[in-house]
Write a structure and sequence with these properties.
Elements: E1 9-14, H1 21-35, E2 39-44, H2 49-56, E3 61-63, H3 72-85, E4 89-93, H4 98-102, E5 109-114, E6 116-117, H5 124-132, E7 136-139, H6 142-150, E8 159-161, H7 178-186, E9 194-199, H8 208-221, E10 225-230, H9 238-250, E11 257-261, H10 266-272, E12 275-278, E13 283-284, H11 288-295, E14 300-303, E15 319-321, H12 326-338, H13 340-357, H14 360-371
Parallel strand pairs: 1-2, 1-4, 2-3, 4-5, 5-7, 7-8, 9-10, 9-12, 10-11, 12-14, 14-15
Antiparallel strand pairs: 6-13
Helix pairs in contact: 7-10, 8-12, 11-13
C-alpha cells in the first residue's frame, strides 16, 4: 500500500479542540511521516489547537466540521478529502470521530488509534462501530487490547499494540549541568535544590491532588525539595486548577509547590529534575511521561494504573505505588532520594530500555506495519 513515490498517504483525524499529549503525539507522527517520504495530514475542527499548531509546524491541515457521532457534513468532508488526497489510510484518534470516519471505510483503509485505558460501554452501537467502522486498531497498551478482545469489539489479530515513545530531544544528556542550574534559576533555587515534577494536562484523572498530598507528607519530615506541576488546564478545567491552588495554599505549600503552566521545553525541564511522578488514577494506557522520563534518565515513581506496569518494573525501571497512595508515594520519594546509587542504577536501566524499545523511529515502524496489517475490509464478526 504505497503512494506514487513509494510512501504511504495517511490522513490523521482528531475531533478534539483541546491540546495535550495525545494531540502533540499526533503531530509528531505526521512530522515523522513527512520527513520519511510519506504524505500525511491532519483533519480536525477549524478552531482546534491541533490545526493551529499543525500550520505553525508547517504540516498540512484540513478543517472538518465535527458535530455529533454521525455528522453528515463531516462525513461528506472526509469522503471528499479521501478522494481528493487519494489517501491510503485514515488514522482516527479517539472515540468521538470514529463513527463519522467509519462512513469512509469503503474508500480506504481505516485504522482506529486508542490512546487511553478506560471502561468501554458494552453497547450494541459501540460494538458495531468497532466491528464495521475500522479495519484495524492501534492501541497504546496491552491492557487496552485485552479489554477490546474481552468485549468482542475486535479480534486479537486485528489489534496492534504500539506503546508510547520519547521524542529524540528527551534522549539528550545535560552533561554540563547547565539545564539543571538554569531551570532552578527560573524560580530562584540553587543548583543543589531537589526538584520533583509531575508533567501533564491539568485535569482530575492526572492525580495532581495525590501529588500535592504526597508533597505535604514528604515535607513534614524533610524540607529539601520543591515540587513542580508542569502543564496547563483546558478551559473546562480552570476551576479544577483553581481548586488545586487553593489546596496548596491551605496546606501552606505555596513556597514549595510551583505551577509552571504550559512549557514548550518539557524535555529540558524534565532533564533538570531529580524525580518524576505519575500520580494518575484513571484513563492511562502507557503515558508519554513514562517513556520521556526513561529517556531523560530521571528516576520515575508511578501509580500502578492502566498500562503503566507494562513498562515500569518495580526497582528495575522505576518505582510503583498503588493508585492514590499519597503516603506510599512520599515514602518512595524518601527511598529514591536517600539512595543515590540505587536511583542511578534504576534510571540507567530505564534509559537502556528506552533506547531499545521506546524511540519514535521504532514506534513509527510498528505503526506503519499496523497500517498494512489485517483484513482489507472491516470484519463484522468476531
Amino acid at each position: 500500500m504505497t503512494g506514487a513515490a513509494g510512501g504511504m498517504r495517511i490522513l490523521h483525524i482528531e475531533s478534539s479542540k483541546n491540546w495535550g499529549g495525545q494531540e502533540y503525539g499526533i503531530l509528531e507522527q505526521i512530522r515523522w511521516l513527512v520527513d520519511h517520504g510519506h504524505e500525511a495530514a491532519i483533519a480536525a475542527p477549524h478552531d482546534s489547537e491541533i490545526v493551529a499548531r499543525a500550520r505553525t509546524w508547517g504540516l498540512p491541515a484540513h478543517p472538518v466540521d465535527f458535530r455529533g457521532s454521525f455528522a453528515p457534513k463531516a462525513i461528506a468532508q472526509i469522503r471528499r478529502l479521501v478522494r481528493s488526497g487519494r489517501f491510503d489510510v485514515i488514522d482516527v484518534h479517539g472515540a468521538h470521530a470514529a463513527a463519522t470516519v467509519g462512513c469512509a471505510a469503503d474508500l480506504c483503509r481505516v485504522v482506529r488509534s486508542l490512546h487511553v485505558y478506560q471502561p468501554q460501554e458494552k453497547a450494541v452501537l459501540r460494538r458495531l462501530i468497532w466491528r464495521w467502522g475500522c479495519h484495524h486498531a492501534v492501541v497504546r497498551a496491552h491492557c487496552v487490547k485485552d479489554q477490546l478482545v474481552a468485549l468482542r469489539f475486535k479480534r486479537a489479530e486485528d489489534i496492534t499494540v504500539v506503546g508510547s515513545w520519547a521524542a529524540p530531544e528527551f534522549f539528550h544528556d545535560d552533561s554540563t549541568g547547565t539545564e539543571r542550574s538554569g531551570v532552578r534559576a527560573e524560580w530562584g533555587m540553587s543548583p543543589d535544590d531537589i526538584l520533583v515534577a509531575l508533567v501533564g494536562m491539568l485535569r482530575p484523572d492526572k492525580g495532581h491532588r495525590h501529588f500535592i498530598g504526597a508533597a505535604a507528607r514528604y515535607l513534614k519530615t524533610r524540607q529539601d525539595a520543591f515540587f513542580l506541576i508542569v502543564g496547563e488546564a483546558p478551559a473546562a478545567y480552570r476551576e479544577y486548577e483553581a481548586g488545586l491552588r487553593r489546596t496548596v495554599g491551605r496546606l501552606g505549600l505555596d513556597s514549595r509547590v510551583i505551577f509552571t503552566g504550559y512549557r514548550h521545553d518539557v524535555a529540558r525541564v524534565l532533564r533538570a529534575v531529580d524525580v518524576a511522578v505519575i500520580a494518575s488514577d484513571g484513563v492511562e494506557a502507557q503515558p508519554r511521561m513514562v517513556a520521556q522520563a526513561f529517556a531523560a534518565r530521571v528516576p520515575l515513581i508511578a501509580a500502578r494504573v492502566g498500562g503503566v506496569p507494562e513498562l515500569v518494573v518495580h526497582r528495575e525501571t522505576g518505582w510503583l505505588v498503588e493508585i492514590g497512595d499519597e503516603a506510599g508515594t512520599a515514602a518512595a520519594l524518601t527511598d529514591v532520594l536517600s539512595n543515590r546509587s540505587e536511583r542511578e542504577r534504576v534510571a540507567a536501566q530505564a534509559r537502556r530500555f528506552a533506547e531499545r524499545e521506546l524511540t519514535l523511529d521504532r514506534k513509527m515502524a510498528e505503526t506503519l506495519a499496523a497500517y498494512d496489517a489485517g483484513p482489507r475490509r472491516p470484519r463484522g464478526q468476531v
